[in-house]
Amino acid sequence: MRIGSIIDLIELYAPPSLAADWDNSGLQIGSRKENAQRVMVCLDVTGPVIEEALKYKASLIVSHHPLFFRPVKNILDDPKGEMIRAIVSEGLNVYSCHTPFDASRYGINAYNAFRLGIAAEGYLEPSPDPAYGYGTYGDLKEEISFTELAKKVKAVFGAQAIKVSSFGEGRMVSRAAFMGGAGDDYINKAKMMGADVYITADVKNSGFMKAAELEMPLMVLSHFETEKCFIKIMKDLITKECPSLMVLESAAGDFEKII
Questions:
Q1: Which one of 156, 157, 198, 230 is at 20 to 30 Å from 34 when CA atoms are compared?
Q2: Which residue ranges does the chain devote to CATH 3.40.1390.30?
Q3: What's domain 3-101+228-249's architecture?
């Protein structure tokens, strides 16, 4: 199947017009005219992911995070340069679907809100098209204690541990907000939307302090934990639309571990 046709199908679900100004989603290396019979889906393009793609003869890599965030001024003998040379010399193609997928109704935030039992009412940051946006908020299926919800969050995301606001313990929660990836900037918005708890990732100490000032309890996972579902969602999406393709999930990508 033509790579351009695969990209067009993905972009029906995650239109490129949804990309943030700073983002670089889209075809990173390769040609829309090339054909692909096997696709490797990953969160980040890394050396081990490239090795997987070559091992399983996948000519297209679909990643969440772009291979290039900033203009490339040189290609040297460093890890990034080695990856670029390997991709080009082996004839691989790389397509990244980042913020368009974050804002999609079929993407990370919608998927995780469903798994957490949040009846999504709207977006923490709506896109110009009100049908799309980043993050979500809404009522939980039932009122639950902060501690029990923390256990559920760990189970849903397969997390060994999560960080929480200490002042949240002992509270009951019936309304939640969620933002996949770095969510520091949306603590105020979660509070404005009436959330009893805000579930996100990558919150710094200053974010915990702000949350305490606002009495907005946090539950914080790792960036990877909140976004690793991209691999399953994208695999299922491509498989549904392109049943003739073999779509593989990368097993190389979790760089964090709690011991």
A1: 230
A2: 3-101+228-249, 116-226
A3: 3-Layer(aba) Sandwich (3.40)
87: how many CB neighbours lie within 10 A of its CB?
21
Q: What is the CATH number of domain 116-226?
A: 3.40.1390.30
Strands (E), the chain: 26-29, 38-42, 60-63, 93-96, 118-122, 125-126, 133-134, 136-145, 163-164, 172-182, 197-201, 218-221, 246-249
> What pLDDT tens digit does each residue of the chain (259 aa) get?
999 999 999 999 999 999 999 999 999 999 999 999 999 999 999 999 999 999 999 999 999 999 998 888 889 888 889 999 999 999 999 999 999 999 999 999 999 999 999 999 999 999 888 889 999 999 999 999 999 999 999 999 999 999 999 999 999 999 999 999 999 999 999 999 999 999 999 999 999 999 999 999 999 999 999 999 999 999 999 999 999 999 999 998 777 777 6
